């Protein structure tokens, strides 16, 4: 009986991999340029628990990187593609860890009984920005990539969350409820010059920088349900990219700025999708009955 179940699992994984490979090949063939370069890291509960996975865009192969009975979430690939930062509650409370891109050399960076999570790398890979409740409220902090020299950047009674470092290293985007509704803000990398760039009076969050630093992708329920939008860094030219009755969320740009990866439940459960930076050619990348979420593009 165990042998039959084992063989069935192998067959299921093989079929899923074949379907993904066919879809990736077909999409590449339909494109006018080579676009499947690099890797996408994401979280999934396809193994029964939320773990970190890595998808190779050259061949569509998906590899599980973490294996434990706890939550491993919100992965982010380092600029050189060698490390992945993520949050995990594997040692009791939520802390930030790094590992190599094969899933080895797991290193804990934060040590505090409060929540530390949602890491985002500086463009030179030497620092990590994150949000934490270590001083009673959820604020934005920065530390060296080895976990040393933690500095608080925001100090507001409202929630400041989900920071994202700009490609030039000078600016950090984040979401905040400080004006009564979740909106997107920018600040200098030292925490100064905090300013609001969205005024939607609706949830607008999870900002992601374009590689040239000129725009941000984000999700919002401005038009009734959660869709993906882009906006210039000065708050102008907000444009909606997705149009459906499902939830489209967690956008992230490709390294060349031509594509945006995101997750959506438009086909019944959360899967990973990609689209052109103008919203065209929306294509599904993962195919399973579990939830695949929070994709990030990297080398």
Task: Reconstruct the topology from this structure.
Elements: H1 2-30, E1 39-44, E2 51-56, E3 62-64, E4 72-77, E5 83-88, E6 95-100, E7 107-108, E8 116-121, E9 127-132, E10 139-144, E11 151-152, E12 160-165, E13 171-176, E14 183-188, E15 195-196, E16 204-209, E17 215-220, E18 227-232, E19 239-240, E20 248-253, E21 259-264, E22 271-276, E23 283-284, E24 292-298
Antiparallel strand pairs: 1-2, 1-24, 2-3, 4-5, 5-6, 6-7, 8-9, 9-10, 10-11, 12-13, 13-14, 14-15, 16-17, 17-18, 18-19, 20-21, 21-22, 22-23
Structure, explained:
The chain is mainly β and 299 residues long. The protein contains one helix and 24 strands. 10% of the residues lie in helices and 41% in strands. The strands form six sheets. The chain has a four-stranded antiparallel β-sheet, with no helix packed on it. A four-stranded antiparallel β-sheet has the order 4-5-6-7, with no helix packed on it. Strands 8-9-10-11 form a four-stranded antiparallel β-sheet, with no helix packed on it.
Poorly predicted runs? 1-34
Q: Which percent band covers the strand fraction?
A: 35-45%
Q: Based on helices, strands and strand pairing, what is the structural class?
A: mainly beta
Helix content range of the residues, please?
Answer: under 10%
**Terminal-residue CA separation:** 42 Å
Q: What is the average per-residue confidence, as pLDDT, rounded to a whole number?
A: 90
What overall geometry do the principal axes of the alpha carbons give?
globular
As a whole number of angstroms, the C-alpha radius of gyration is 19 Å
H/I helix tally: 1
Please report the total strand number as a whole number: 24
Q: For the report, how would you describe the main beta sheet?
A: 4 strands, antiparallel
């Amino acid at each position: 009986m165990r042998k039959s179940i084992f063989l069935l699992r192998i067959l299921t994984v093989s079929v899923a991999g074949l379907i993904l490979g066919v879809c990736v090949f077909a999409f590449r063939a339909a494109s006018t340029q080579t676009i499947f370069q690099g890797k996408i890291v994401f979280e999934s509960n396809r193994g029964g628990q939320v773990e970190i996975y890595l998808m190779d865009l050259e061949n569509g192969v998906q590899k599980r990187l973490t294996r434990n009975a706890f939550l491993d979430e919100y992965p982010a690939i380092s600029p050189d593609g060698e490390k992945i930062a993520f949050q995990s509650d594997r040692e009791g409370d939520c802390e930030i860890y790094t590992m190599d891109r094969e899933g080895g050399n797991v290193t804990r960076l934060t040590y505090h009984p409060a929540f530390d999570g949602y890491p985002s790398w500086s463009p030179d890979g030497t620092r990590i920005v994150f949000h934490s409740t270590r001083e009673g409220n959820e604020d934005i902090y920065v530390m060296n990539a080895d976990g040393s020299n933690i500095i608080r950047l925001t100090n507001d009674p409202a929630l400041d969350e989900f920071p994202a470092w700009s490609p030039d290293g000078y600016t950090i985007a984040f979401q905040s409820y400080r004006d009564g509704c979740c909106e997107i803000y920018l600040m200098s990398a030292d925490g100064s010059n905090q300013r609001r760039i969205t005024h939607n009076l609706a949830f607008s969050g999870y900002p992601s920088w374009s590689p040239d630093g000129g725009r941000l992708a984000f999700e919002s329920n401005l038009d009734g349900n959660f869709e993906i939008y882009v906006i210039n860094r000065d708050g102008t030219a907000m444009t909606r990219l997705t149009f459906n009755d499902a939830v489209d969320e967690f956008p992230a740009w490709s390294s060349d700025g031509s594509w945006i990866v995101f997750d959506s439940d438009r086909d019944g459960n959360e899967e990973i999708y990609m689209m052109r930076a103008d919203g065209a050619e929306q294509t599904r990348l993962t195919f399973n009955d579990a939830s695949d979420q929070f994709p990030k593009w990297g080398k």
